[in-house]
Design a protein that fits this description.
Layout (H helix, E strand, L loop, with lengths): L1 E3 L13 E4 L4 E3 H4 L4 E6 L5 H19 L2 E7 L11 H11 L5 E3 L4 H6 L3 E2 L1 E5 L5 E3 L18 H12 L10 E4 L7
Parallel strand pairs: 4-5, 5-6
Antiparallel strand pairs: 1-10, 2-3, 2-6, 4-8, 7-10, 8-9
Helix pairs in contact: 2-5
């Protein structure tokens, strides 16, 4: 079932985190933060919404890094119920796709809960002061890749954030598969 993200809570401060990446290193929000903004993405290996736009996520991440925006992806899904999202499979995907950003494992799901992540993909765009300015979609693609000429909503929003510190007032929610939460036992 597709889930949409809530509207952007402008000015909300980015929660700190310290997570292990597929590169074996520990990464924190401070490590990731760029001089002109920071993009925190919740993605996973199995979601058709993520897979449909993964090449575009990688493209936009590279282009945003060129603008001084730090970029990170986090997988918070329960790997017990969704083995495709295991740390080992995350490592394989990061290498196979040549991720230009750290891909972090939120095994205990505390970071996803701190961010109130709703789905994959879920994009959180922060300004240089780590205040939320964008919580919208990558583009108009859904669980299939849209046409090549779609407006790059995420890129355009984060470019504006990098240039002005402010995100666009009109934002269209991201849509994707719900976060696969661990069962409460």
């Amino acid at each position: 079932m597709a889930t949409e993200t809530p509207v952007c809570n402008f000015g909300w401060p980015a929660p700190d985190f310290s997570l292990t990446g597929t590169d074996g290193q520990t990464h924190t929000l401070t490590d990731i933060a760029g001089p002109n903004g920071t993009l925190v993405m919740f993605i996973c290996n199995h979601c058709p919404f993520v897979l449909a736009v993964l090449d575009r996520i990688i493209r936009d991440a590279r282009d945003l890094q060129d603008l001084g925006v730090g970029v990170v992806a986090i997988c918070s899904n329960d790997a017990t119920s969704h083995p495709a999202d295991s740390f080992e499979n995350m490592q394989k995907m990061a290498v196979e796709k040549g991720f230009p950003f750290p891909y972090l494992h939120d095994a205990d799901q505390t970071v996803a809960r701190a961010f109130d992540a709703a789905c994959t993909p879920d994009f959180f765009g922060f300004n240089a002061d780590l205040k939320l300015q964008y919580r919208g979609r990558l583009d108009a693609s859904r669980n299939t890749t849209g046409p090549a000429d779609l407006r790059r909503d995420l890129y355009e929003a984060m470019k504006l954030v990098a240039e002005t510190g402010q995100g666009p007032s009109d934002q269209i929610p991201s849509m994707g598969c719900s976060i696969k939460w661990k069962s409460e036992t």
